[in-house]
Specification:
The chain folds into 5 domains: 4-21 and 245-411, Rossmann fold (3-Layer(aba) Sandwich), CATH 3.40.50.300; 27-236, P-loop containing nucleotide triphosphate hydrolases (Rossmann fold), CATH 3.40.50; 425-484; 494-548, no CATH class; 551-745, no CATH class. Helices cover 34% and strands 24% of the residues. With 750 residues, the chain is an alpha/beta fold. Helix 20 crosses helix 22 (691-703) and helix 20 crosses helix 23 (729-745). The protein has 23 helices and 29 strands.
Length: 750
């Protein structure tokens, strides 16, 4: 790709270029019958041929099987469910279809595509979400053939009032789950319960809707489908769509002082803005993906400042993130699609399949967190057979610097597994309360919610949250529990955030102690606020507006108590543990250079919760220098924690860690990496299953870095409770290598 960024740009910062060649389209003709009006409409739109996966998906869906379609970005997955849905609507006018999208923006975008496809066919389509005017909702329930919504609205707005949807549920023939890979962790675990509640009500109304799910490439699509729905499906992963040449550039910001290899690198926000501005100046249309809202705003500010000195109007750059009004977001999408904007600084709110037309380049401001997201974001560059450029700008932390040194781990990686756990006790208990409110629970129905559902339901009965009468479990109130349950959070007590007497938002109590303590900077709808007080007696935090030039990071100290060993192998155990965590202070960090501006103490009560952990036992400290050996144990914790998100396929905040020089039950060193969600969502199970590769890559993290004592690119962590004191790279390597050798001697796969 003859891109000026690569031809004329500062080559010293591009550490690796990788090219994926173009791919020709493969077409196929469906064998199943298709309504004549639908065939005519496809020809009118110029869709004379279907890609191989589209034709196969149509045949499988019309044949009655549940389907999971796993193909790349811009491969035309929407036709895989739109065609069967329209076929149902045309051949059976009473049939109804329900589409689920993870965001309202995506539902609105898909509504436009579906309206264009169904024009003249007499099929009524509509969105039903929080933005739908109250006066229109009744007619949508009665008349729409296809309703587009999101899991949040299904959970809180449709299922609790299912009596209003009786006709729709009786005639429901097809459920679509788009962007299935998004349903991971706590959100995915809750969605598993919401979907089981929906299917239970359908069964009560004597309907059994078929399910078509679409996903980006992940390692366990059929397993995830079953965890979300309780059903089995057929997999279609033969991508027949064409693809232009893809060029991947790995970009490492320069060191501020080349003579000192441990000093900070130039801010990736600044580097990302310079790349965006360079692309805009050369007439290229691009989008930058940022991991945080504040980064998206900073990149926009820096980009506009640079464009102000060029021939490109600064207004050709814009930002896009959660918190904008639907009208604002639709306008930005429209401007980008029409070419009125050259570059966009966005969060992953734009990662999903919102159609913004063909973009020339994508800049990833940091590793997105998963292989699936990496390719999903990169896939927004180029469209169809057009070439595309994807640039990843590395941050100065061990995981991203490891990927910069070994980019083949991204380019040759198989997609990771998506971890969910619908049987998480806290999550499932809440979903069972919702199900019992919607309709009394018969014990025979509980099997669909998982093996532990009956025991949990009985415990809810003993606690007085359910009542067992006449062989059924009843919810003892007319007020629905669903509005009190945030399906994108882990549950528990909620803290209310108040601004001048008005409700600003809510968050779980355990999360509030880390993110809404006194002195914390809280981000909401694109604005920043200073938390002036947190009252844990009333569960209320008060905030005031503040444009801060820093962010805050809680300092958390944790004590681990093993409860039960689930599985074990050489030196590794998968354990149920009790975690007692206390927020003992916080750091104020600069937005640009990540410099620590100050440390403040906090006195907050500890919280205790049960979760799942991977435990690694290390040899007893018996050398001549116990302090040096302790530094090695601490280093093992840092190295394992740095690579854990890559292995588990999760966000860094989904896991935490702790280390002990003398763990009480063995009086020997131990390192724990644990799931921060109470009850766990399957992340540590994945780490334990891949313990060999995890140890090997943690070793390579240190071996591939040129430093001698440990640096931000391999061993130092910005999250360290003791500010990276007591660390030794050589001793850490010695312990990792001996652990790997021990597993090898005992025949454990590495």
């Amino acid at each position: 790709m003859n891109d000026p960024l690569l031809v004329e740009g500062p080559h010293g910062h591009i550490t690796h270029l990788h090219e994926i060649p173009a791919r020709e389209a493969r077409f196929a003709v469906p064998e199943a019958a298709m309504h004549g009006s639908l065939q005519v409409r496809l020809r009118e739109l110029g869709l004379k041929q279907l890609y191989e996966h589209q034709a196969l998906a149509y045949d499988t869906a019309i044949g009655g099987d549940d389907v999971v379609v796993v193909t790349g970005t811009n491969s035309g997955k929407t036709l895989c469910y739109n065609l069967p849905a329209l076929q149902h609507a045309l051949s059976e006018p009473a049939a109804r279809m329900l589409y689920l999208f993870p965001t309202k923006a995506l539902a609105q975008d898909q509504l436009g595509r579906l309206e264009e496809l169904s024009k003249g066919l007499g099929v009524r389509v509509a969105t039903y979400d929080g933005d739908t005017p109250t006066g229109q909702r009744s007619s949508i329930r009665r008349l729409a053939h296809i309703v587009l919504t999101n899991p949040d609205m299904l959970h809180v707005g449709i299922l609790p009032g299912h009596e209003n949807w009786t006709r729709f549920l009786k005639s429901l023939r097809l459920i679509v789950i788009d962007e299935m890979h998004v349903y991971r962790g706590v959100f995915g675990s809750n969605v598993g319960g919401v979907l089981r509640r929906l299917l239970r009500l359908c069964e009560w109304h004597h309907s059994r809707p078929q399910i078509v799910a679409c996903s980006a490439t992940i390692g366990n699509p059929l397993e995830l489908f079953t965890q979300l729905t309780g059903r089995q499906a057929k997999l279609i992963d033969q991508d027949g769509s064409p693809q232009g040449r893809r060029t991947f550039a790995f970009w490492n910001p320069p060191l501020i002082d080349d003579a000192a290899p441990s000093v900070k690198r130039l801010s990736p926000n600044i580097v990302t803005s310079e790349i965006l501005a360079t692309l805009a100046e050369s007439g290229k249309r691009a989008i930058a993906f940022n991991r945080a809202r504040v980064s998206a705003e900073l990149v926009l500010r820096y980009t506009r400042k640079r464009l102000d000195n060029t021939g490109v109007s600064p207004q050709k750059a814009e930002s896009y993130r959660a918190g904008y009004t639907p009208k604002e977001r639709r306008q930005i999408e429209k401007d980008l699609f029409k070419g009125n904007l050259m570059v966009l600084s966005a969060t992953n709110a734009m990662e999903l399949g919102v159609d913004v037309g063909g973009l020339d380049a994508v800049v990833m401001n940091g590793y997105p967190g998963t292989i699936a997201s990496f390719y999903q974001q990169a896939g927004r560059a180029g469209r169809g057979a057009h070439d595309g450029l994807a640039v990843m700008v590395a941050h100065d932390d061990p995981l991203e610097q490891f990927l910069i040194r070994q980019p083949e781990r991204l380019m040759q990686a198989t997609a990771e597994h998506v971890a969910v756990n619908p049987e998480n006790p806290q999550i499932l208990s809440q979903q069972l309360l919702c199900a019992a409110h919607e309709r009394p629970l018969n014990p025979s129905e509980l099997e669909a919610f998982g093996p532990s559902a009956l025991e949990l339901t009985e415990s809810l009965d003993r606690a007085g949250e359910l009542a067992f009468r006449a062989g059924m479990f009843f919810y003892p109130s007319h007020e629905p529990p669903a509005p009190k349950i945030n399906i994108r959070g882990a549950g528990g007590e909620l803290v209310t955030l108040m601004l001048d007497g008005d409700l600003l938002g809510t968050m779980e109590r355990w999360r509030a102690m880390q993110q809404a303590h006194s002195g914390a900077i809280y981000l909401h709808r694109g604005a920043s606020y200073l938390v002036t007080s947190l009252d844990l007696t009333t569960n209320v935090a008060h905030v005031v507006p503040m444009e801060a030039d820093y962010y805050t990071q809680a300092i958390v100290q944790s004590v681990i108590e093993p409860q039960v060993t689930i599985r074990e192998s050489e030196s590794m155990k998968l354990q149920g543990v009790k975690v007692t965590s206390a927020v003992v202070g916080y750091k104020r960090r600069s937005l640009d250079g990540d410099t620590i501006l100050g440390l403040e103490d906090l006195d907050l009560p500890p919280i205790t919760y049960d979760t799942i952990a991977v435990r690694m036992d290390l040899p007893m400290l018996e050398g001549e220098d116990p302090a040096l050996e302790m530094a090695g144990v601490h280093g093992v914790e840092h190295a394992l924690m740095a690579l854990a998100p890559l292995i588990a396929g999760c966000d860094r905040n989904d896991l935490s860690s702790a280390w002990y020089a003398y763990f009480p039950d063995t009086l020997a060193p131990a390192v724990f990496v644990y799931d921060t969600t109470p009850g766990g969502v399957g992340l540590c199970e994945r780490l334990f299953a891949d313990a060999g590769p995890w140890l090997r890559q943690a070793t390579q993290l240190l071996e591939t870095c040129d430093c001698e004592e440990g640096c931000p690119a391999c061993l130092l962590s910005p999250r360290c409770e003791v500010s990276n004191e007591t660390l030794d790279k050589r001793e850490t390597l010695k312990l990792l290598l001996s652990s790997a050798e021990g597993r090898s001697r005992h025949g454990v796969e590495l």
